[in-house]
Design a protein that fits this description.
This protein is an alpha/beta fold. The chain has six helices and five strands, in the order βαβααβαβαβα.
């Protein structure tokens, strides 16, 4: 029997329930789950910004989630390259990718390799982007309070 290897890549910055939901859903659809944590360089290429949390800390957080069997650094904006490095049978993404240019590219690349693409519901009420905005607002509020005290 072939072990079905799944791949769930992400930045996993400011780890939140949406990340956990992706990993929980992914675990149900494979025998062995590999989480690819995007490097700082890959994140800059994909999102035009650096993660808040350093790579070694993001790796440690994801490594310690019992749903995950293995954690690798994902330096691959093109997931075909990730497939060459990891050798997975199924890749998991949030459904915010479905029907987008990047999702269509992913599907075409994976189809050519015989890899299934499985989308899971995106957790809309929480994202690293929203958390980053909230932190920035809190930070600016603290700065405003400090200037009032001066």
């Amino acid at each position: 029997m072939t072990v079905r290897i799944g791949y769930a890549s992400g930045v996993y910055d400011l780890f939140h329930v949406g990340h956990l939901n992706l990993l929980k859903h992914a675990r149900l659809h494979c025998d062995y789950l590999v989480a690819g944590v995007a490097s700082t360089e890959a994140t800059l290429l994909m999102k035009n910004r650096e993660p808040v949390v350093p790579l070694h800390e993001r790796l440690e957080i994801v490594r310690n989630i019992r749903l995950v069997d293995e954690v690798v650094v994902d330096n691959y904006p093109d997931k075909v390259d990730a497939w060459h490095a990891v050798g997975f049978h199924v890749i998991f993404k949030g459904d915010d990718w479905r029907g987008t240019e990047k999702g269509n590219r992913l599907e075409a690349g994976m189809l050519a390799l015989g890899v299934e693409v499985v989308y899971f519901p995106y957790t809309v009420h929480t994202s690293s982007t929203l958390l980053r905005r909230a932190l920035n607002l809190l930070d600016s509020g603290l700065e405003d309070n400090e200037s009032l005290k001066a």
